[in-house]
Amino acid sequence: MNLSKDLNENIFYRILNFTYWFLLTNIYFFLFTVPFWMVLQLFWDPANLFSWGLLLISLLPVGPALTAMFSIMGKLHREKTISVTKDYFSAVKANFRQALLPWTIQLVITSIVIGDILFLAGHEIGSYITPLCYLILIINGIAALYLYPILSRLEVPLGGLFKLAYGYALFNIKTTLILISMVAGTGILVYIIPIISLFFIIGPFGYGIMWIMKDITLELEKKLIV
Asked: pLDDT digit string (tens) for 105-125?
């Protein structure tokens, strides 16, 4: 028995599997972003309030898709294997309603804050209030990095879910900084090699987030009855 050969073949096999899983995860996730890209290409007019409404509606499916992505990447991290098509769409179905409401709330918050930033751009008071608006956007985004991974793994009431997400974002400084670094690194990679990133970035990004969040989700699992 050639142990070295078996090991090399096993590593090669796992690389192929992970590549396949990440690729399909990207494809399935981006299917749910098609309405957004259609609105952006066909109807987008920043000066038109109706366009903003369409854009908001087109983004609604992204929340459940994002939660499903975190769900299967968490499963991949725990079990080292997934049935990507079955697991992804099962996760979308299982988490659709639970993910849609918090995602809608976060979209509304983001829309209002962006609207305030645009409105204040032409006013002197904007120089004082706009930094606060950007801070709200940043905190809202960081909270999402906690909210949807937690939601993908645990059944938590909406109020408790927001308390956990925003609480961790503000007070779990070490993990928050690691998550921000993860987002920054992903953004740099997308900027440098956008075409390759388009096909492979979502899966590895979700896998990395679930790996970073593993201790938090394990802690919450011990405290909460799923």
From this structure: 999 999 999 888 888 877 777
